[in-house]
# Entry
Amino acid sequence: MKIIDWYILKRFLVTFLFTLLILIPIAIAIDISEKIDNFLEHVDLGFYQIVDEYYKNFIIYYANTFMPLALFIAVILFTSKLSNNTEIIAITNAKVSFTRFLYPYFIGATLITIISLGMNHFVVPMSSKERKQFEKEYISSARQKNELKRVTDFSLQLTDSTYIFIRSFNTETKSGYDFTSELYDGIQLKSKLVANRISYNDKDSTFKLSTWKLRKIYKDRDSIFSGTKIDTVFSFTPRDLIYKSALAQEMPSGELSEFIEISKKRGIKNLNAYLVELHKRTSLPVASYILTIIAVALGFRKRRGGTGVNLAIGIGIMFVYVFLMKISEVLGAVAGVNSLLYVWMPNLFFGCLAIYLYLNARK
# Structure
């Protein structure tokens, strides 16, 4: 049986790579047609820079995104070909069960899952950071740039007793105005620091407050101090003020988990957009096993119409899976819901379908 295992595994992986190499150029061609005007607007933007800073990272991102789809299509194509060539009939006549027949497929799916997990958790976030920086500089509109640049009416809990409030802050210039810091002892206000302007210094990680006033509250009296300028330290940076789900895609999983934990301690109410991104990095690669079972079960039996019918059914199933995945991501980002459950919901649903098809194929 080892010869057949190697034969199936080799053909499976070759078909997978071939399918992936077909999907990537299509994605690149569509993207170029949409962004060619943006590239031509910048006369200083060279071909090498576009390829190195954008399309290199574009290929990494979409190769990882297309892996489950390419795997699903590859398994259907290859298994249907085995069935049409009556090779599966010879295998089953040799008393090989459907479960045993799945072994080489699962070895291939495991290899792809491991690669996808590594890319999702480490490689793609670093690559996305460079790609999004390029998009921000050369592709994004002025409105999109301002969404990430300016923060208004922001509050943050730094510790159990310290809270800050900022009326407006520009994350590009790293300065803002109407800043307030309050220190509490339980529910009792102990001190309040206000400043007309606040700016951040990257060199020494300090904040400069302009036209500031500090009020300290005691049992029998208050003390008020004021000044023109003062340098001080707070346990946050300008990046902490930007709570956008897009930033989660730029963080490796370790950094993202740490960011979520710190944000929880700071009292940020809705972090589900970040949790969805974190859970999705595991759920999508694991879906390779589910999609493999479904694809093998579809292509295992010879059908009237051949490979085309199986492929059409498979593409329909993939469309439903992607549709449910996108819906679950949106619903999982809503405040107050269990983001883990919503992210894994498509896998649970299609897992039940995979079990049904597996039991049916075993008969």
Q: What stands out?
A: The longest strand covers residues 188-201. Residues 159-235 form one domain.
